[in-house]
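Project standup — Tuesday

K.O.: blocked on the structure for the chain from last sprint. Re-posting the sequence here as requested.
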Amino acid sequence: MAWARGLGLLLVLLPVVGASKPGIVVRLNKEVLSYVAEAGKVPLRQALQVPIPHFLDRSGQVIQPTRIQILNVHLPYLQLKFIAGFGIRLSAATNFTFKIFRVPEPLHLMLPVALLADTLVAQGSIGTPVVSISACYSLFNKAIVFDGYNSTAPTLLAPLQKHIKAVLRNKLCLRISNLVQGLNVHLGTLTGLSPVGPESQVRYTMINAPNITKDYISFDINAVLFLLGKPIILPMDATPFVLPSHVGTSGAMATVGLSQDLFDSAILLLQKAGALNMDITGQLKLSNNPLNTSTLGQVIPEVARQFPEPRPLALKVQLDAIPVVTLHTNNATLRIQPFVEVLAPDSDSAFQSLFSLDVVVNLSLQLYVSEVRLQGTTSVLGNVQVTVASSNVGFIEMEQVQSLMGNVFQRPLLDHLNALLSIGVALPSVINLRYIAPEVFVYEGYIVVSGGLLYQR
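H.V.: unblocked you, prediction finished:
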């Protein structure tokens, strides 16, 4: 089953040219076939260990049943290759070693068998890849007798080999078909909901039949993000996402293209969920924390008048405006425009608003992949821009307040955003699959993840 799941790895991470929004294009390149073939040798050998019914020797006056056992299935050659416009072809050379329990001594013989099977890859009704064997052949060579040849009548060898070939011809392709058919349940995990946050999920589905060439197989994948069970809907336009050729790392097993729309959906989800909002609270006992009325009173006289005794301040940060992710070649940025209300506790321990600020922060966005999740970190680009939206403490000298607010606001904001981005979003995959040494490339309007794949049970 590991081979089947390995082929499932191949077929589920395979997404391609997308026309849906948000769009993801995943290509599994021909380099992945060698990995799947090598990983699949053991489970394929196990699947080919078919039981052989007793051979009925009719050469004598009494019919003698002879037990036959497969001792070993050697698989010196296994190759997978793409069939353009269709699926995947399996070619294998196998050597079956048999023990014939005959009297007076057992007989050992080897039967070389060549296997050919064509696997059709199609789109299922629930938006997952569906695989099936469309054609399968077993080609037999002449058996080689290891011992006991002189004591074995030629009249026995011929019908014995005929019996074995007849059994294998019926069973080998059936075993391969069962192995491949078992993939479809596993491939169904592609459409399962993957958590993004406590109240949000992402679901991936194929939107058309796979595109298969001699060099890769790919699928159009539609990604839908959900908040409290409701989908995040973006304004639609007529421009489909198409993953250009020759992007990513040369020779990589997988190339995953992530459109601008996926990032727009993810950031809209965070904004609608309120995950980007935060509270920043000062503490009087921290000497290096300027977030208190005493420090603020030095630049705003009315604050000093209303609060002769130092009290901690609180910043209530809300993002009502949708953040903007911009993707340019080798450069990803995030622009947020939080509304910040500066609060101080009054004599009744209730908070009163001192003033509010409109803030603009431009951030550099660094992206990376851990196992199957796209994650990120941010850093501030340039200065934090601050303007007064309203004031209950009279005139505010903006230059002094900008310096003060920028210092107390910037680090908590980065910590908060980086904590969110470290959770990440799961890329299309099946269970137990992860990326190996993935590289992330930023292009104009899309991201590419390129690297190897590893499947572990």
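K.O.: great, moving the ticket to review. The chain has two domains: 30-187, 260-455. The first helix runs from residue 2 to 12.
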